[in-house]
Amino acid sequence: MIHVEHHGPVIAIRMARGFLGRPIDWTTAYWVDGLLIDAGPPCTARQLLRVLNPLHIDSIVVTHAHEDHMGGLPALRARYPHVPIYASRRTVPLLREPSRLAIQLYRRLLWGRPKPVPDVISLDEVDEVLRTPSYCFRVVETPGHSRDHISLYEPTQRWIFSGDAFVGGPERHWPADSDLFAVLSSLRTLASLRPERLFPASGNVRRTPLPELHEKIGLLLQLTRAVARLDAAGMTVPEMVTALFNGESPLRWWTMGHLSAAHLIEACRSYNALMAQDDRPMASRERPRPFNTPSDSSDTSTNPSTDYGDIFRS
């Protein structure tokens, strides 16, 4: 299932797996001035190629290594063998070896299993800037949804292509391996750029995004404070799920526990513990221990969506 929308010079190509004629979940690739931002999932790759037929493709970039954003790359490489494909340095090894990604069964059924793409160029090699004939896109690191996540910022137009760094609406579920602190930091980074257009993975383009970015930050912080109050009252995580969300949503069962309100509660507790540690007087803090563990480039954290028209985001 595919749907094409025009937003001035930007074309949004929304893709979904259909069930009984209805989309289960949307993901979006954007075309602007010869640059294709994200590649959609494996299951819609042929449809994506048909949409791109009348357009020229000069370069391709992916925001992160999740199957609904990079699954169409092998088909694009076959169609456009000489077009450069760019990704962040954390993303490149995952595109070359997607077997390193621990993709849950429901995601494989929903989007398909991605295949390797060997010749991907790190954005470091172009100084994290992608230029088209009319625009200049700067890379902004926006981890949280995944460790390798980036967004693209066009400073003249004040456009942000945010991938899954921004998902509208209040959260009701969360994967265990998402980083709430990083999500909030990334949202603050996006807000600091004062964008005039926000192009998220859902395809629901925001024409006045700054209030929505601040609202999202506020909703998440409000939830962390609510969890802190219930934690102080001695509630267990299941009791908090009932108090705050009236129980788990069906997504917990459909995703076999990957997305759950309990994970969201635990993410808030981890955030609160980190902030409490940071708020202690300097003299009472432990001396930081050296951290020598290499980063895990196989991270597959996801940020579920309550964006309008979406069921969940992977």
Automatic annotation (TrEMBL):
Domain Metallo-beta-lactamase: 26-202
Coiled coil: none
Single GO molecular function: hydrolase activity
Keywords: Hydrolase
Basic and acidic residues bias: start-end ranges: 280-289
Record region (Disordered): 280-314
Family matches, as InterPro entries: Metallo-B-lactamas, NDM-1-like, RibonucZ/Hydroxyglut_hydro
PANTHER family: METALLO-BETA-LACTAMASE DOMAIN-CONTAINING (PTHR42951)
Identification of the protein by name: MBL fold metallo-hydrolase
